[in-house]
Amino acid sequence: MNIAAIQTFLAIVETGSLVRASERLNVTQSTVTARLKALEEALGQTLITRSKSGATCTSAGLRLQRYAQTISGMWRQARLEVSSPTGRRVFRNCAVHADLWDRWGERLFSALDEHEGISVSVFSGGESDLSGWLDSGLVDTALGYVPITRVGVVNEAVGEDQLILVSTDPDAPLRFDPGYIFVDYGEDFSQQHMTFYADANSARLTFNAPSPALSFILNKGGTAYLPARMVEALVAQGRLHRLAQAPVFTRAVFLNRKEDAAMDARIWTS
């Protein structure tokens, strides 16, 4: 097993095609096939099923995918650290929930401006990604919406997202709105939402993240609870309207870090 084979496997999974994987990696298709075969022989498992519709993971391939992503990420970080100029300090790796980057990323940029000797690798994903990366050692801090409870992991609440009801229609009703879109922010939000809207009709459309919900509303119209930081400019521009009579919900933000990664925490809490 080698890094090239791991990276080739990931390219096949991400593109859904051996041909597209070869184009991404800038190698021949025969090289991609040979690397995949070598990896499958090393593991004693078929990892990819090929058909006319494309390439998909087998059950063994799905099990490997998470580890492959960690191995590939750690290899990139190792190369970064080893190749960094002498005297340049490489900061620990950070993970940020994809929905938080547009707000909390500014703090990272400020830290980089203030400390020229810092090098940072940032990984962005969902809650399961953050937990997996922290467990694997790929990252030392993970900023997300869920406290990760592990031995050797410290978590603290560092802020919150305000979720406000916005609509393309300034006169949209608070209840029984046919254009209402439900964004699933997790169990806590769902319980709060049910408390206030127990008598309201169910949404016809549900998203598991705010970004696609916002994109849909801007293109097709509608109403949804979205993070205030995400829509404040759109409200100011008049493209969206805040329904001020609606309750405001909150979503806590947690910094999860390894016990020895206190320096990393200063990026997000300073």
Can you characterise this structure?
The strands form 3 sheets. Strands 4, 6, 7, 8, 9, 10, 11, 12 and 13 form a 9-stranded mixed β-sheet that branches. Helix 7 links the parallel strand 9 and strand 10. The chain is globular and about 60 Å long. By secondary structure, the chain is an alpha/beta fold. Helix 1 crosses helix 2 (18-25). The mean pLDDT is 84. The protein is built from 10 helices and 13 strands. 46% of the residues lie in helices and 23% in strands. The protein has helices spanning 3-15, 18-25, 29-43, 59-83, 101-114, 127-136, 187-197, 210-220, 228-237, 262-269; strands at 48-51, 54-57, 89-90, 94-97, 118-119, 122-125, 141-144, 153-167, 180-183, 205-207, 223-227, 241-242, 249-258. The chain folds into 3 domains: 3-81, Arc Repressor Mutant, subunit A (Orthogonal Bundle), CATH 1.10.10; 86-155 and 253-269, D-Maltodextrin-Binding Protein, domain 2 (3-Layer(aba) Sandwich); 160-252, Periplasmic binding protein-like II (D-Maltodextrin-Binding Protein, domain 2, 3-Layer(aba) Sandwich).
